[in-house]
Amino acid sequence: MYSKRNRVELTIKTLSGLEPVLAQELAQLGAKDIRTGGRVVYCTGDQRLLYRANLELRTALKVLKPIAQFRAYDEQHLYKYVRRKIPWSEFMDVTDTLAIDAVTKSDKFRHSKFVALKVKDAIVDEFRRLTDDRPNVDTRRPTLRINVHINDLDCTISLDSSGDSLHQRGYRKETGEAPINEVLAAGMLLHAQYTGNRPLLDPMCGSGTILIEGALIAANKAPGGLGRDFGFLRWKDFDANLWQSVKSEARQRERIPQQPIIAHDQDFCVVRMAQRNAMNAGIDTYIEFGRQKMEKRKRKPLPHGLLVVNPPYDERLEDSDIEGTYKMLGDQFKNIFPGWTAWVISSNISALKSIGLRATQKKTLYNGPMECKFMKFDLYEGKKGKASPSDT
Question: In the CATH hierarchy, which top-level class contains the domain 182-222+255-391?
């Protein structure tokens, strides 16, 4: 439990559609006052929660700590407030470096780069007034990364505790032509209620992201524990002892997965790439890799399990018969995988109809800029799962 004296408000960014999953993750970490917004979840906690959120959350992109919220009526008002109302010396020294990221949705502030420039000028000018010197800008590895968000006239200034986006786990050194985002892959699995409690198969594994995230979940291994350079490590209030405690406790919660995790693809080179990425993540021994064409599969690997697949959309990957590919998936689901649960993500709605099975759940997610449907198919014996294309 944390005291009100140590209370910290956090704004945590995620992908559209994953807000409920992120909220559930935060609740499991002990966050309070959890509220969801569009691609964001708000909560309160303490410094330990801030550290744990960066280290352990699977569906977070950024963990921000708001330090000021106000209405900015024009650029001069923005400049003056940032310069005079925020005690920057509490957060950085003149010898430190800074970087500004700005997001605007406002008729008054139309250009995010201009907003970032005005905020930078305000901070630099205030330090110059106080010290006759100024901090420098470092966009790659600043001491303090500052996030500015303006919605209409409402401005929020936050400290970015994460640094690089948290989807950059560090294990994916190689990718195929259309890789899936690590946060999206983890969010899909958590939405499908995967905890490592049942076998997991991706028959079109590509660079292996879905199954690597699955293995991290099954092993209860923190996704941020692969040597990331978090922004908060350079903050003035960084607590090294607390950070070591958080990391040690996370390692103690790790476990050995008890159910098979199976990665298949028709291309041997792709399978090897996925295996190398899994080695980088330190979980390759938990995944069974093999070359296997989905259409050639004659039997299911186990009586029951969870199948999650990200097939070609015919958007960035060319498929000469995309609807035939999806029909093949539906046929194999029905004929080879009764007793399993299958989830398919795709932006190709027409092709999804070719699966020919009734979806028991549908969710809208985004793979990059592409709006996708993430669809669940409960696979039964016989004809119970059949449906007309209009049901998909």
Answer: alpha beta
